[in-house]
Amino acid sequence: MNKLYAIVGMAGSGKSTVAQIAHEKGFGFLRFGQITIDEVHARGMEVNPENEKMVREDIRAHEGMGGYAKRMIPKFDALLETSSVVADGLYSWAEYKILKEYYGEKMIVVCIFVPPELRYSRLEQRVADANDLAQNKRQLTREQARARDYAEIENIEKGGPIAMADITIQNTGTIEEFLNELRKYII
Hints:
InterPro entries: P-loop_NTPase
Protein name: Dephospho-CoA kinase
Pfam family, one: AAA_18
Oligomer: single chain
Organism: Candidatus Magasanikbacteria bacterium RIFCSPHIGHO2_02_FULL_41_13
Strand order of the largest sheet: 2-3-1-4-5
Distance between the termini: 15 Å
Number of helices: 9
């Protein structure tokens, strides 16, 4: 049975790395955040952290906190017909509940955990990568990252899916150590 692996974690934890590796191993791939990027473009705005935050919160204000999940279900269903799927960036508690009710045991939530200071350091050092599947490897200052953390926890209920994860993987060491942990559960 094909599975939906919903990847959760704060900015800079390694969610996109998991998605990239799983996609290379033949998993289907969808990124929740692509909805935000597409909407920023549709509104004729520049893609930047401030506009993305505004759009994320606006979508949820108009469609409910589960709006992203509702938009993603048909896309997940189509991919699940042929392969397991990695979903990069499940955020809100409402999204979690909608998807868990719909997919049941077919959905496995994987939390990638990195302490804040290490994530902030990594985010400050990020360099855009043309081969990045998610197109999500943009640099954030420590202040931007902290503000995003607070907004995602306070306004988007991001803590719930992290707390309810079926699997938690710490990403505090080398990339090789991280890949070894991923191999135990996903790839």
